[in-house]
């Protein structure tokens, strides 16, 4: 297998504090540019040191040629540009694509950029285009749209319901994920729910959004942006911070709409994680942290199972019995996850990348995991249909 193992590393992180209300004088691209500038400065670099851009454009601000648009916006001529194009997994996809471009000699230092300004009116207009008969989104038009604009909560509720039917998973077991991630958020001043702990009872008693999923099991939509700088392993050694090396990567897409899933409770994480682990030379038992895309609590459960952290169908008891806080046996989403840190549209998945990198660099502040050398990061898009898995490590893991 041609390997990206140790060929590149994350050396700079830029992340805006999520905000609930969209600012009137900002755009998604503007927020993305702010985070990009922060990432460049964090790496101790200048704009002239960047020679490639990967970007996932804001959902409600489409633009022809996002990489060239952002290159012009930032005033950076580039040798290589592309988008993530895997929905919620786009941030993770961009990181391995950056490493691949560097390994291929197309460029040497890449900006991976995300940003989203959540404007309810624009989002409503975007979703209003998804109507039966418009021919916009393949199988959803035939099988899902006729039942109304149910959206992601209904699809993930179906996954949660099926998981409970097949494996006996309980509401309390899912709630444990939300509680532990909120504990992590309470150690992260940037998190939307910083300083606001919750209990199992709080989750169970919160409003049902799409049965069996409740309000506190679902992401907090925010406006925000985050970016990272990826450079070659050789250049990384001279950077300001300890590098976060990319040891392995895997990607797998098997369907689009949930109705086309070959098995509702098994996801492509099974394959993306297998490839990432094989490339890295490590396995799930070696991982000291997990940063898993968490648009819903059930997403974390499916990821833990399919990546091999627990047997299939046993994520309920596993999550109930395992301390997943930053002080625990297997820290999961130490920034609070999208459930408690906030989800800035497709930029929400970048928060798992930035947190994973900061932890590997030893920059997790109060929530820093002790004696950390290696971790698993996963991006998820399209009702768990698009999966990208990454292995991050310190120099000691090379």
What secondary-structure arrangement, pairings included, does this model have?
Layout: E1 8-15, H1 28-42, E2 52-56, H2 66-74, E3 80-82, H3 90-103, E4 109-116, H4 120-128, H5 139-143, H6 151-167, H7 171-185, H8 200-205, E5 208-210, E6 213-214, E7 224-232, H9 233-236, E8 244-253, H10 269-280, E9 290-292, H11 297-306, H12 315-321, H13 337-340, H14 350-361, E10 374-381, E11 386-393
Give your account of this protein's structure.
- The protein has 398 residues and is of the alpha/beta class.
- The protein contains 14 helices and eleven strands.
- The strands form two sheets. It has a nine-stranded mixed β-sheet with strand order 3-2-4-7-1-8-11-10-9, sandwiched between helices. Strands 5-6 form a two-stranded antiparallel ribbon.
- The radius of gyration is 19 Å and the shape is globular.
- The two termini are 17 Å apart.
- Mean pLDDT is 92; it is low at 128-136.
How would the global form be characterised?
A: globular
Give the class from helix and strand content and strand pairing.
alpha/beta
Distance from first to last alpha carbon: 17 Å
Q: How would you state the average pLDDT, rounded?
A: 92
Helix content: 25-40%
Low-confidence stretches: 128-136
**What is the tally of helical segments?**
14
- Structural Rg: 19 Å
Major sheet summary line? 9 strands, mixed
Largest sheet, order of strands side by side? 3-2-4-7-1-8-11-10-9
Question: SSE string, helix = H, strand = E?
Answer: EHEHEHEHHHHHEEEHEHEHHHHEE
Overall strand count: 11
Query: Beta-strand level of the residues, as a percent range?
Result: 15-25%
